[in-house]
Amino acid sequence: MKKVHLLTIITFLFSSVYSQKAGHKNEIISIIPQPVSIIQEKGSFTLPYNIVIITPKNEEVKRIAQHLSRQIKTVTNQVTIKEGTSAIPRSILLSLTGNKKIPKDGYQLKITTAGITLLANEPSGIFYGVQTLLQLFSKEIESTVIHQKPNAWVLPIATIKDHPRFGWRGLMLDVSRHFFTVAEVKNYIDQMVKYKFNLLHLHLTDDQGWRIQIKSLPKLTEVGAWRVERTGTFGTLSKPTPGEATTYGGFYTHEEIKEIVKYAGDRFVNILPEIDVPGHSLAAIASYPELSCTPGEYYVSPGDRFMIWPGGGQHFYGLLDNTICPALEKSFEFLDRVFTEVAQLFPFEYIHMGGDETARNFWEKSEQIKALMQKENLKNLDEVQSYFVKRVEKIINSKGKKMIGWDEILDGGLAPNAAVMSWRGMKGGIEAAKQGHEVVMSPTDFAYIDYMQGDASIEPPVYSTLRLKKAYQFEPVPEGVNASLIKGGQANLWTEQVYNMRHAQYMTWPRALAIAEALWSPKDKKNWNDFATRVETHFGRLNAAQVKYAPSIYDPIFEITKKDSATIIIKLSTEIEGLSIHYSFDNSFPDNYYPAYSSPLIVPKDAAALKVITYRDNKPIGRLIVMPIAEMRKRAGIK
Ligand code: ACM
Hints:
Elements: H1 2-14, E1 37-46, E2 50-55, H2 59-72, E3 78-83, E4 92-96, E5 107-112, E6 115-120, H3 123-136, E7 154-162, E8 168-174, H4 182-193, E9 199-203, E10 205-206, E11 209-210, H5 219-222, E12 226-227, E13 248-249, H6 254-266, E14 270-277, H7 282-287, E15 307-308, E16 317-318, H8 329-345, E17 350-354, H9 361-365, H10 367-376, H11 381-398, E18 402-406, E19 419-422, H12 427-434, E20 439-441, H13 444-447, H14 468-472, E21 486-493, H15 501-508, H16 511-520, H17 528-544, E22 557-564, E23 567-573, E24 580-584, E25 601-602, E26 609-616, E27 619-620, E28 625-628, H18 629-636
Parallel strand pairs: 2-3, 2-4, 4-6, 8-9, 8-21, 9-14, 14-17, 17-18, 18-19, 19-20, 20-21
Antiparallel strand pairs: 1-7, 5-6, 5-7, 10-11, 12-13, 15-16, 22-23, 23-25, 24-26, 26-27, 26-28
The structure holds acetamide.
Residues 356-357, 406, 423 line the site of acetamide.
């Protein structure tokens, strides 16, 4: 036995995960998110050419079986789906049981030489078990094209028991700043469910576009869904010129929303709709300017600078009033119409009302706001915002839905039944839980996947950075809070700088893998080095599925400090182990024959740039990074 195990381990160490081919033995089990328990045994099970999937008499499970069948057939096996409750030799049995030992949404997957059995109490558990099963197949199962040769799929002998840690495992997609088609949203869902996410939060409205048809307010999509077209860096783009055509945009009709909701539901994904008010509302105000406290001409923003973030802890302010006026009854009549239709379209129990980043500088000057404060005895603008949020909650509750909002809804007093989505760190979530409210954690520090994932010298520019390793440290339950109030968490993809779905994928993967593991796997099962190895295997699967991902974990981390007023010190490191960093200061391209970084570098006199690249096993693996000395001096604080 011992010898066999040693041999197995040696085989594991020397077999390259990259060279696996469909039909070859898939020795390394590499599942993301890490299951609760995996017991792997010696040996493998080869699926027969004619595969039988047995399903119970349950429409949802039959649909899951069809999905599994479609994937298996990418390598041209024959698959038959049969109704039944017991296995036949070498079949795949999907079975609904009443096993009290399997927690909600959990499953038990057993692969023996006799066949595959997947047990769960609900169809959702079967669905998650199938996602795990698919990850046990070699990466060709992810392929979107049919392979020509008949193939024998080989699976490891294993027993996997699994269930989620949290019930809210989300990704947010901002479809306002850039619009994504129904087909693109469906594809995003296809990718997220492979990693057992069960919630897609659609940020449907913002200053840059209103993306959902509201039949009783047609201008929201006639006007609010369209803007002048600009390409470049968000916040620096030029304003519309007089009479310029608004050609960029789009929106989802009721029928399209129903289609997305159904598609998601068939994959056990809830859609959380967000209507972001009272701030971030320029698209609504451009459509209905009477909703503003500040009379004026409004336009849907193409990404121009109309808000100022002064930094240094000072509050931001608007150059344009992008808020819906809390002092006007017609604002609440408008929102009643919006939430009536939103509530009818989305079956999920929550509606998100935004509530974040409300600029107050126009409210300060508004006579109507002053009158409201007097009438309602509101002491400050936080209380004005809280008055607004509480009225919105009443509207949302009256439609039979619960309200959730960004953590600013705590300011001035939380609405009585509201759930809080904590984004400015975890503190809003901690405070809300202390007050007995439900919480979803999505802190910028760990879960903002619009941030750069590597060095600014190579990543498309965004104002902050979140590396995979940091995202992997996401722990949704802070010390000392009532854990039962933490419903889970999500990663947020804001799309100011995301112009297309390929880039949305690049920003999402692999960081969403880290978030998936934080939300599904037991806390004590998490291990960065092990995860990083699994991520690399999944890069192969993402390639097979033609999904773009960021290779930033292969690029070095720069830490630049100043030794004295003229000298910088450059420290280089890597996020993952086993890479060597090679560099040059002489403007030529470094390769593995160039010096390997081993200790902090000092810039040679007159050098213009540092160039670096990482290697593994004598092969380039990172991207070539060109770092101008002037940029490093700036980072070190040297003029
Ligand atoms: C947010 O990032 N403004 C919620």
